[in-house]
Design goal:
This protein has 215 residues and is α+β, with helices and mostly antiparallel strands. It has three helices and ten strands. The protein folds into two domains: 49 residues, no CATH class; 121 residues, no CATH class. Strand 1 and strand 2 form a beta hairpin. This is MKRN2 opposite strand.
Length: 215
């Protein structure tokens, strides 16, 4: 289970941890009487599960979890969620409809909350699209016709119904996926450092003004 990451400021350092210690790990001073600006804050996790990320594009490791086994080089798997949080994804067995196994995913929302007409039709669109012969198991190819092909083709079909231009794999990845996976990568580095050493300590003067400036 993912632990919450906490940040507090002391000794002109930003200190990240899973729990606030009784004494500062830098100077040993008691932290029982902190000033307001030294109060701990929670760092938002960049990960979301299918049940919380509806009508979204999800990315996760093909095997294992981002915060435990992922090494930055392992294969990734992608899928699309319906309005109930079920993750539709494509692999060598054909179309899968997963209710579990996507708890630690990077999420790219695909629908604005006020797009009621599209949301009402989303599940129907997704089910009909996924029933097409082109997504049968025998058509699967790891490099040419894979999970990303499935997800991006669906996204472009939805864009077409909205009268919008389609996106290439490069366009979609660079504009929507990479900004989120880069933030996830920083968080993974932070999380693993805390898991190994209990704390991750950086010079407070190096921070960029937000809670994602930990690497």
């Amino acid at each position: 289970m993912e632990k919450a990451v906490i940040k507090f400021h002391h000794c002109d350092k930003d200190i990240y941890c899973f729990f606030v210690p009784e004494n500062c790990p830098v100077c040993g001073e008691s932290l029982s009487c902190r000033r307001f600006e030294e109060a701990p804050v929670s760092i938002p996790s960049p990960f979301a599960g299918g049940q919380r990320a509806k009508c979204s594009f999800l990315v996760k490791p093909t095997t294992g979890e981002f915060l435990r086994e992922y090494d930055g080089r392992s294969d990734l798997h992608v899928g699309i969620t319906n309005t109930k949080g079920v993750v539709y994804n494509y692999n060598e067995t054909g179309i899968c409809r997963d209710e579990l196994g996507w708890d630690q995913s990077v999420s790219v929302p695909l629908v604005q909350p006020d797009m009621y007409s599209l949301i009402n039709q989303w599940d129907c669109y997704l089910e009909q699209f996924s029933s097409a012969e082109m997504w049968h198991s025998q058509r699967y190819n790891e490099t040419e016709h894979n999970c990303y092909t499935y997800a991006l083709t669906f996204i472009n079909c939805v864009l077409a119904t909205q009268g919008k231009s389609s996106l290439s794999k490069t366009e979609f990845t660079e504009k929507f996926v990479l900004p989120r996976t880069k933030r996830a990568s920083r968080y993974i580095t932070l999380y693993q450092e805390i898991s190994e050493n209990y704390f991750y300590i950086v010079d407070g003067s190096q921070k960029e003004g937000d809670d994602t400036s930990y690497v």
